[in-house]
Hints:
The protein is mainly alpha-helical.
Amino acid sequence: MRKAKPKKRYILPDPKFSDTLVTRFVNNLMVDGKKSIAYSIFYDALEQVEKKTGENGLETWKKGLNNIMPSVEVKSRRVGGATFQVPLEVRPDRKISLGIKWMITFARKRGEQTMTDRLAGEIIAASKGEGAAVKKKDDTHRMAEANKAFSHFRF
């Protein structure tokens, strides 16, 4: 166990929308430290979303992210030789990071040609409440619901 908690690192808002959530998303999207490429992928994806849906791209992305963020998750807990899946509430910060990671992961697994197309498709699907990332959230919630009998093992 470490002595002190590490200091919380504060991230700067992005240049276009002045939003720290966008920067967090781009930091997760970034591969091999290529941040400018990650920004261009994200901004182009938002433009594609605007063209396809006719709505504000940033608002659609935020709506999609909210549809993906889980409110409960399960954690493994060993009690007397047996392992139980214990449902837990998700901290607000972890909720956001899980939503971001799921959106990016499932966007990468899509079949479109470029990452911009994949991300745009995943954003649109998430904002409608469909797509692989939303399914992941539903599965997580379903698993927590199924294991709520073990919630008294919470730590």
